[in-house]
Amino acid sequence: MENQLRNQEENGVNAQLLQHRDSNMINPYQKNRNVYTKKSNILLGLSIFLIVLSTILNILFQNTIFNTSLDVQQSIQKNMDVEFLKFLMNIISNFVNPTIVIGLLILIFAFSRKKFEILNFLLYFAFVSYICSIMKTLFASPRPYWVGNKVSQWEWVCYQEYGNPSGHSLLGPIFYEFILRNYILRKINKENKLARVAATIGIITLVALILFCRLYLGMHALNQVFYGLIIGISLIILYRLYFEITIKRVLLYLVRCNIDNSKKPKACVYILSVFLLCLILCINIYILQDTVKDKSNENQWEIQIEDKCNIKELDPLKAFYNRCFIDCSGVCICFSLMLGFLYSKHPEFLLGRYSNQSNVFLRSLVITISSLVFIVGFILLPTGEMVFLKFFFQSIGVFAAGFCLIYLAPILLFKYNLVQPIHKELQSELTEELSTEKKHPKIYQNQKESQEGDRFSINANFENNHKNSGDDYEDHDIDFQNTYDLYKPQNTSNGTKSLQNDKNEQQQNNEKRASKEIN
């Protein structure tokens, strides 16, 4: 009996020690991730709450704030009626011009190796622009210079679509937060806090100036500017905490479908189905608003636009619902990018996995022509006053431009040696890995499970390597590391030597194991 009691006590003590050991061996990375998840959930809830609250307030008080804004803007224009200031404000306002933004993204795409990151953001930015156009159609609010003679129109480009919310206020913070985080702060060491704070303040000041420009030039009222700003900040939070990772996972899945032909048809059907749903939503909203909304004020607005913009006759395709509806065609670029990832012949280029790139001018020229040659032709096609025909042609042009940027440009770059491919043996190893997954899923699953044990050490090393650098790291990149490490850029000679050394080491290990078994 005494021995049994003693054994039970020892077993109890051992169980407590094991429990204590296991509690101390909890992955600290997982602890940090749990804390991060709680904070991110709070921020996600807060951003959604801000979107809902600002929308409700905008609906309830838009007329009151709009009328107050007319008096405020009249006073601003009266006290600051200086030609040089008008010129300066127009330049600052054009920092968020859609054409300039797309041009900057294309240039960054041509110069930077982080093409996957840029395409990820471009997809989100285009979809947000589509949502902004739909919101303008639903609110159908006039711009300040349309109403009465209090506010003048000082913008170089006379915008004639509806103004609520302000597209500059909504898209400006999203675009410049991306530039700040990914191309400015990343270049500054994290220990240099003064420079990082100065860069952040500079971007915030630029965005604030853009918001003031929209009021000063008579393009938007106070409620439209602040509503767009709140929506823009909320969408930044949603992108950083959810959509950036989600879009990345979708695009990487499409790359895997690209390599494995059996998955292509199913992925293509999904993409086209969602694409058609977006187009149907846009068309239905346009038809509903065109038939239901009261258009009694549009005649007065047309007179003001023709007078203040020095237009003899208003083009119906460039004003009111029609313009907002045609702008919805920008959503086509989202799905053309997805199809480009699915059918691209050089997915390693889209992932930034190539050895080097040369001749900056020619490379930029190839990418620009590939993305713009189709869209120019479709935009210039004569359509008369047929809104749906204009929307159809512009949608085809945008879709073709996005697809050519992803499909045609890499082919030309590799063909004319403007970008060097990765080593062929690395490509064959990737193909072999995918064939193993397809033919022997159990073997592949066992290999994946054996690699899971090293996941924490990979994360720890990855974090330590980037701790003192200016680069930001994201843990979800590790999830795809095993599959896409073979796309890493390497010089041909170094790649051959490293592969040969790995093979020699593997052969020596096999010989040692065989000798042990014989002994």
From TrEMBL:
Q: Where do the record's region annotations for Disordered lie?
A: 484-519
Highest rank taxon of the organism: Eukaryota
TM region positions: 41-61, 87-111, 118-139, 166-185, 197-219, 225-247, 267-288, 320-339, 360-380, 392-414
What are the annotated GO cellular component locations?
endoplasmic reticulum membrane
Membrane topology per the entry is: Multi-pass membrane protein
Q: Is Membrane a UniProt keyword of this protein?
A: yes
Q: Which key words are in the record?
A: Endoplasmic reticulum, Hydrolase, Membrane, Transmembrane, Transmembrane helix
Any single Pfam family the record assigns to this protein: PAP2
Q: What is its main location?
A: endoplasmic reticulum
State the Gene Ontology terms under molecular function: sphingosine-1-phosphate phosphatase activity
Q: Which positions fall inside the Phosphatidic acid phosphatase type 2/haloperoxidase domain?
A: 118-240
Q: Where is the composition biased (Polar residues)?
A: 484-499
Q: Which InterPro entries match?
A: PAP2/HPO (IPR000326), PAP2/HPO_sf (IPR036938)
**UniProt biased composition (Basic and acidic residues):** 500-519
Q: Which Gene3D superfamilies match?
A: Phosphatidic acid phosphatase type 2/haloperoxidase
Entry-linked SUPFAM superfamilies: Acid phosphatase/Vanadium-dependent haloperoxidase
Compartments in which it is found:
Endoplasmic reticulum membrane
Family, per the entry? Answer: Belongs to the type 2 lipid phosphate phosphatase family.
Protein name (database record): PAP2 superfamily protein
Name the species this protein comes from: Tetrahymena thermophila (strain SB210)
